[in-house]
């Protein structure tokens, strides 16, 4: 209870695996925003994402999942959008560029290398078959420095806005 008699807000909880790129991006966002959270480890190599307790949070069996009081959000992109709306830091234009870069990675690249996919390909096409598959799909996403150019344009936008603001004062 706080001194005004209200319940203390509960600490955010992040269900995460240290090797999961989807979890990295949420940890990065939480840290950039300076938000304190409780780390709940889910070991994908031990299959803990399939434990009934975790499936109650995310029935598809993927990390990350964020618990904010009664709210459960189980998708890195949705979590980051939620955090930005709840604790806004950026203008619309910068958010749009960031969402584009994030979605290329989270929809066009990462899902193609998920454990389920990798194991399935290795099972059907044999050991090592996964390597050209991953190279192909990572290569597409990183072609022409697509993601880095987007992020660089976002940074130059920031620099431009900062210098415009400085010159108008
Ligand atoms: N769209 C989801 C994808 C989540 C996802 O694919 N998580 C991977 C780790 S990066 C996972 O939990 N994989 C477990 C498995 O394949 O069994 C997100 O961005 O959060």
Q: Which ligands are bound?
A: glutathione
Q: What is the CATH topology of the largest domain?
A: Glutaredoxin
Provide the β-strand percentage band.
5-15%
Q: Identify the strand order in the major beta sheet.
A: 2-1-3-4
Q: Give the CATH architecture of the largest domain.
A: 3-Layer(aba) Sandwich
Low-confidence stretches: none
**Shape descriptor:** flat
The average pLDDT is 88
Instruction: Return Rg in Å.
Output: 19 Å
Question: What is the CATH homologous superfamily assignment of the largest domain?
Answer: Glutaredoxin
Number of domain modules: 2
- Alpha-beta content class: alpha+beta
CATH class of the largest domain: Alpha Beta
Question: How many β-strand runs?
Answer: 4
Order of helices and strands: EHEHEEHHHHH
Tell me the helix content: 55-70%
| Cα-to-Cα separation, first versus last residue | 45 Å
Taking the sheet with the most strands, its summary is: 4 strands, mixed
Individual helix count: 7
Describe it for me?
The structure is a single chain. Helix 4 (92-109) packs antiparallel against helix 6 (130-142) and helix 4 (92-109) runs antiparallel to helix 7. The protein starts with 11 loop residues before the first strand and ends with a helix. The protein has a four-stranded mixed sheet. With 169 residues, the chain is α+β, with helices and mostly antiparallel strands. It has seven helices and four strands; from the N terminus they run E-H-E-H-E-E-H-H-H-H-H.
């Amino acid at each position: 209870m706080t001194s005004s008699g209200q319940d203390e807000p509960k600490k955010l909880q992040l269900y995460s695996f240290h090797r999961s790129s989807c979890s990295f991006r949420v940890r990065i966002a939480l840290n950039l925003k300076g938000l304190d959270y409780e780390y709940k480890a889910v070991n994908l190599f031990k299959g803990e994402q399939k434990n009934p307790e975790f499936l109650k949070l995310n029935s598809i069996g993927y990390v990350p999942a964020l618990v904010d009081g009664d709210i459960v959000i189980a998708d890195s992109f949705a979590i980051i959008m939620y955090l930005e709306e709840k604790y806004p830091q950026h203008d619309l234009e910068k958010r749009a560029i960031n969402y584009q870069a994030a979605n290329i990675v989270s929809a066009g690249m990462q899902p193609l290398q998920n454990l389920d996919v990798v194991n399935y390909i290795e099972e059907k096409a044999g050991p090592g078959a996964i390597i050209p598959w991953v190279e192909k799909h990572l290569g597409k996403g990183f072609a022409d420095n697509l993601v880095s150019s987007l992020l660089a344009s976002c940074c130059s936008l920031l620099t431009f806005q900062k210098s415009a603001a400085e010159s108008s004062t």
